[in-house]
């Protein structure tokens, strides 16, 4: 049972930038379920996509793995895929330590390496599946293209990138409506107006989402042969890109 997220429940005099520190790691499962619509569906489907695309004797990457939800979903689905190894990477020490505990809690024939590192500095090699589950949006915009390009070159032909993100929309009316619906979702999950407001202030300089056309433009320029949105709920969603 995870701890309840109360990080922004009391008034904060000076709101700093959001960080994935020890406090966030403690409440992360509760935070993500109450903040990201469709999160459980995305995690389940990542496992299903991994089962379809993971090949024997290849690497599966979870870049920005946090507590390992996507890693564990993929491990369940690719159990028995000979020589397949999952490499889970995060730059938060608190997240990595908890991810290791989760991974080691159950025996599995699928080997998982949990690494504390900057995903921009990781070599992507012999990959059949790469996951960026709500990760790319936290990189500076100028670093996003180069990381996606590196992933493309590290993927085997026919390999898949799964990219989950929060989106912005070019139509202002639609954009504002989807933001309002997301805030309604958070209210329905017990967050107060104060929590919603303070979290938004903390994260606005840290997370800078892209539009769906921007993601598709990058995929096309880099050389992916097929790409599409496979899931969307309000202003959150997930895409695939196949090499």
Structure, described:
The chain is of the alpha/beta class and 243 residues long. The protein is 43% helix and 23% strand. The chain has eight helices and eight strands; from the N terminus they run ααβαβαββαβααβαββ. Strands 1, 2, 3, 4, 5, 6, 7 and 8 form an eight-stranded mixed β-sheet that branches. A hairpin with a 2-residue loop joins strand 7 and strand 8 (236-242). Helix 2 (39-53) runs parallel beside helix 3. It is globular, with a radius of gyration of 18 Å. Residues 60-159 form the Methyltransferase domain. Keywords: S-adenosyl-L-methionine, Transferase. This is Carboxy-S-adenosyl-L-methionine synthase.
Give the termini separation. 39 Å
> Largest sheet, described in full?
8 strands, mixed
Number of helices: 8
Topology as a string of helices (H) and strands (E): HHEHEHEEHEHHEHEE
Helix content: 40-55%
* Structural class by helix and strand composition: alpha/beta
Task: Report the principal-axis shape.
Answer: globular
What is the number of beta strands? Answer: 8
Q: Could you tell me the strand content as a percent range? A: 15-25%
* Integer average pLDDT: 91
- List segments where confidence is low: pLDDT < 50 over at least 5 consecutive residues: none
Radius of gyration: 18 Å
What key attributes describe this structure?
alpha/beta, eight-stranded mixed sheet, 8 strands, 243 residues, 23% strand, 43% helix
């Amino acid at each position: 049972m995870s701890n309840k997220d109360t990080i922004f429940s009391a008034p904060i005099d000076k709101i700093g930038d959001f960080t994935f520190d020890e406090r966030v790691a403690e409440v992360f499962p509760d935070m993500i379920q109450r903040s990201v619509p469709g999160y459980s569906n995305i995690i389940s489907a990542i496992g299903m996509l991994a089962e379809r695309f993971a090949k024997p004797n290849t690497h599966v990457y979870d870049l920005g793995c946090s507590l390992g939800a996507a890693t564990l979903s993929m491990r369940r689905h690719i159990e028995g895929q000979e020589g397949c190894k999952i490499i889970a990477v995060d730059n938060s020490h608190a997240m990595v330590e908890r991810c290791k505990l989760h991974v080691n809690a159950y025996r599995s024939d699928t080997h998982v390496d949990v690494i504390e590192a900057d995903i921009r500095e990781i070599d992507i090699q012999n990959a059949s599946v790469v996951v960026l589950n709500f990760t790319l949006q936290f990189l500076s915009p100028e670093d996003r293209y180069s990381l996606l390009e590196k992933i493309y070159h590290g993927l085997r032909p026919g390999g898949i990138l799964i990219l989950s993100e929060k989106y912005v929309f070019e139509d202002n009316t639609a954009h504002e409506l989807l933001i309002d619906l997301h805030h309604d979702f958070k209210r329905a999950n017990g967050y107060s107006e104060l929590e919603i407001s303070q979290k938004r202030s903390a994260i606005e300089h840290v997370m800078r989402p892209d539009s769906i056309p921007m993601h598709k433009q990058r995929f096309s320029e880099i050389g992916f042969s097929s790409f599409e949105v496979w899931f969307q709920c309000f202003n959150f969603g997930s895409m695939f890109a196949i090499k």
